[in-house]
C-alpha cells in the first residue's frame, strides 16, 4: 500500500481508505478493504487516519500516530479517485474525530472537488444490533453532500446472505463483542475485501468517465 505523502501528488490513481480506530477493529477492516483495492491493477490504496479529539482544547496529538496509518491531509482527499470511510460506531453514529475532519472539508465542497467520485463506508460495533446500519447510513450523508457516488455491498456477494456476524448492504461491518476482542472473521474479511475491490473498479470507471467529459 502506498505511503507517499499527499504533497508529492498522485502517481497512480488511489482510493483513500480513511478510518478512525481506538481498539483496532476498524483498522483491521480498513486494511482488508485496502487489500481489495490493491487487487485491482492500475490503482492503489492510501491508508490514512485522523487524530483523536480531546475535551481539553490545548491537547495536541503527536505528529506521527503510535500505530496504524499516518494522519490524513486535505490533499489526500482532494486527489483521491475514491474514498472508503471507516469509523467505530459511537451511539449509532460515526466517531467525532472523523466527523471533525469532514467538517474541515468545506473548501473541497465549494470547489466540487469530490463530485462523481465513488465512496463507501465501514464500521465496527460492540453489539450486533448496536447501530451498524444507522452508522453507515449517517456516514454516507456528508459524502452525498460532496457529490460522491455511494456504493455499498451488493447481494451478489452472497456472504451477505449467510453471515452470522457483520456485513450489510450499506457497507462492511464487524461485530467486535462487548470487550472489543472478537477477531474480524472470515465472512467480514471477505466482504471488506469485496467492498474494496468494487470501489477500486468504480473509481477507475468514474475516472475514465470524468476524463472523457473534460
Ligand atoms: C463512546 C462510545 C460509544 C459507543 N457506542 C456504541 C454503539 O452505539 N453501539 C455499539 O454496538 N457499540 C458502541 N461502542 C463500541 C464500539 O463501537 C466498538 O467497541 C468498536 O468495535 C470499536 O472499534 P475500534 O476497535 O476500531 O476502536 C461505543 C464505544 C464508545 C467508546
Can you walk through the features of this model?
The chain is of the alpha/beta class and 214 residues long. Helix content is 36%, strand content 15%. It is built from 7 helices and 6 strands. It has helices spanning 25-38, 74-78, 96-102, 106-111, 132-145, 159-162, 186-213, and strands at 14-19, 44-49, 82-88, 118-125, 149-150, 173-175. Strands 1, 2, 3, 4, 5 and 6 form a 6-stranded parallel sheet that branches. β1, α1 and β2 form a beta-alpha-beta unit. α1 (25-38) packs across α7 (186-213). It binds flavin mononucleotide. Flavin mononucleotide (FMN) binds at residues 21-26, 88-92, 124-127, 130-131, 176, 180. The site of flavin mononucleotide (FMN) has 19 residues, from α1 and β4. Residues 15-199 form the Flavodoxin-like domain. Its cofactor is FMN. Belongs to the WrbA family. Keywords: Flavoprotein, FMN. Pfam families: FMN_red.
Quick synopsis:
The chain is α/β, with parallel strands linked by helices and 214 residues long. The protein is 36% helix and 15% strand. Helix 1 packs across helix 7 (186-213).
